[in-house]
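[audit] Reproducing an earlier prediction to check determinism. Same input, same settings, fresh worker. If the tokens differ from the archived copy the diff job will pick it up downstream; this log only records the rerun itself.
[audit] input (164 residues):
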Amino acid sequence: MKLTKTISMIVAMLLITSFAAFAGDEKQENKKAMPVELKSQTICPVMGGKIDSTVYTDIQGQRVYHCCPMCSDKLKKDPDTYFKKAAVEGVLFENIQTTCPVSGEKLEDKSVYTDFEGRRITFCCEKCVGAFNEDPAKFLSKLETSTEKMEGHEMKMGQEGQDH
């Protein structure tokens, strides 16, 4: 009889512990699943200071504003770190894409997009979103190439307008 009571108590304790652990896991899953509310960038992702709208880096289809020119090199050395940090904080950088990274087609509108690790990537169609999701690194590098071309053009135009 004592043995039956002891076994019953052990089973009851295991069940209670299991339910408590399961409930804790469910709460953790709900926390992770809750979407982060996106907001425009107001803080430099590198130094944490207030952004200066005249100081920015165009990288991977995004315009990232900085507090000072020195932050650009740090962002370029390790963009994934800063993009992932922004994603966790719900920061949405300004998208400057002009072409779909998958098809190369010019973007007529920016209604088809996905948010990927702190970047909003726009596409010409839903089919391209699927292709991007299969190999994001491949298409992020294509964005990098198109951004560099655009950045070089902007720098040249900016230099022409300056008095030296």
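[audit] rerun output stored. Observation attached for the diff report: Strands lie at 39-40, 52-59, 62-66, 91-92, 94-95, 112-116, 119-123.
[audit] end
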